Amino acid sequence: MSDSGNRPGHIRLTSHPGAGAPVRFPVTWGAVDPAIRGPVVGTVTRPGDRNTIGSHGGSYSLYRALAVSSGALNPIQRPDLTNTAPVVDFGPHPQWADAKAIVSLDPFGHRVAADFADLLAEGVDIRPTIAVTRARLTVVELQQAIRDQRLKVDGDIVREHGDISVIKAAVDPVWYLPGIAERFGVSEERLRRTLFEQTGGMYPELVTRPDLSLFLPPIGGQTLYIFGDPAAIADPRRRLTCRVHDECNGSDVFGSDICTCRPYLVHGIEECVKEAQAGGAGLVVYNRKEGRALGEVTKFLVYNARKRQEGGDTAAKYFERTECVAGVQDARFQQLMPDVLHWLGITRIDRFVSMSDMKYDAITGSGIEIGERVPIPADLIPIDAMVEMEAKKAAGYFTPEAPPRAEDLRATRGRPIEEY
């Protein structure tokens, strides 16, 4: 078979490294000099250049395949990186030189066009995995905060019509497999085999190419929203407010009231804006981990099970329904989350807008100090979301109050499904 414009004919299956040539672009993870560290090359058109498992774009690589199959995209097309440079050039920071501090993203992912210009000119297909740009946010709740005089228009961060100026960065995952294995306390061999099996054998190089230590996983990445002076983020002399938020499409986008996700996200943005206006910086990290990384289908199944169970939707059985459907209460496993904070050079977060013990433990366990923990104000919690909130407090979420008692959990109920 062959595709017009693509390399001809046969399909080459992956094999053990002894059967092929040495990796053309070896990677020394943790090297600060990009020339020594080496580029991440996930090209699918020049196999001899590849030094990673998987391909760029994560799950979107499948849409790229559809575009190629339908004839809408030339398979050998490469991005023109003219004028795509970051609006802010982060780093390098000391954490970049620690091969254990950052294992799930490429610290040089935003600097490809500059750091590897010679290889790009030679025709090597190297693609950025991080992009940094500027934007404005228009959030109705923040405009109400301006009317309520909780936020002020300063003409710089908060503009005249109530929109918010931000720097935002998109980060695609790049996994350094030895570091990922160590982070989760398993052998690299076991990690590779499990990844291979649980993706239905999609990436045979995981088990046939132990010489390839990088993996571009087919998962969503992260988006960072930076408020105020980006130089303040890594400056321990200036204050930083941060919210780490895991995706919730139903609440974040559509305003579903079964959880606290959107109100807590908006509250975090408001606190970040206030910090930036006071001379510090604000940071929101938005992770693509829908439904506790179990997916939205599982999430909605759990909603049905919660609302239909005997005795109704109670805080006492909140986590039980998830485990019955998914087999696990939570698959987000925050071990990899702090990496992006280390990429930014963060050593201290003065105000952490989160009640999650998992996030707090992961961040502080990675060596980043946290000052104050900021819970969601009680008046922002939707009535139906009290089930979630009380259950999480009982499970160890931070609360300045005493955690709920067993009888309180049984008494905290959500509306039945017929009343939606």
Silhouette: globular
Provide the residue-averaged pLDDT: 93
Number of helical stretches of at least 4 residues:
17
Number of strands: 10
- Biggest sheet layout: 7 strands, mixed
Give the helix proportion (percent range).
Answer: 25-40%
Radius of gyration: 23 Å
Strand content: 5-15%
In whole angstroms, the N-to-C terminal distance is 53 Å
Order of helices and strands: HEHHHEHEEHHHEEEHHEHHHHEHEHH
Structural class by secondary-structure content: alpha/beta
What does this structure look like?
- The protein is α/β, with parallel strands linked by helices.
- Helix content is 31%, strand content 13%.
- The protein has 17 helices and ten strands.
- It has helices at 34-37, 61-69, 112-115, 117-122, 140-147, 177-184, 188-198, 205-208, 249-252, 261-277, 290-293, 296-308, 318-326, 339-343, 357-365, 386-394, 406-411, and strands spanning 52-54, 130-137, 164-171, 175-176, 214-216, 222-228, 240-246, 281-287, 348-352, 369-373.
- The strands form two sheets. It has a seven-stranded mixed sheet with strand order 2-3-6-8-7-9-10, with helices on both faces. Strands 1-5-4 form a three-stranded mixed sheet.
- Strand 9, helix 15 (357-365) and strand 10 (369-373) form a beta-alpha-beta unit.
- Helix 6 packs across helix 7 and helix 12 (296-308) packs across helix 13 (318-326).
- The termini are far apart.
- The model has no long low-confidence stretch (mean pLDDT 93).
Relevant terms:
420 residues; alpha/beta; 7-stranded mixed beta sheet; 3-stranded mixed beta sheet; globular
